[in-house]
Amino acid sequence: MPVKIKVICGFPGSGKTSYIKEHINFKRDIVYDYDELANTISLMPRHTENKGIHPYLSDILKNMIKRAKNDKKIDCFWIIRTVPDQMFVNLLNGFDVEYFFINKTVFECLEQIQSDPNRKDSDKNWYSLLMGLQSELMKGAFEICQFIN
Questions:
Q1: Do residues 99 and 145 make contact, with C-beta atoms less than 8 angstroms apart?
Q2: What is the fold, at CATH topology level, of the domain defined by 4-148?
Q3: How far is CA 34 from CA 50, 66, 139, 143, in A?
Q4: Where exactly are the structural domains of the chain?
């Protein structure tokens, strides 16, 4: 049986990681979390921008996808993504993929970001970023996704 890929999309602070933690089978599933991997390979705080590591993280994702295709030891490959852009969607062509969007308002996300004691980036201009993503939502950037709360 081919590996199921579930792509969890949403705004920063929407609860993508929390959603996966509630639904994952810890013994049979794997997760690609860009922010966690960026932190691991750079030792920088989560959500700190470092464009130099992006090619490495992209290669890790491509290799995980390639390997997962025929891996009988995993049931589900979870991918955390803000927006499912066309290049990313093309990367998953030919796989059994479901796309989900965590449907939270900009204000719910801002509240979550500001109240999260583990976020070292709560001073970042999140409102501006989230409003830009809200604009993407209105333009249909998440139309491929099932909306979940």
A1: yes
A2: Rossmann fold (3.40.50)
A3: 12, 17, 24, 22
A4: 4-148
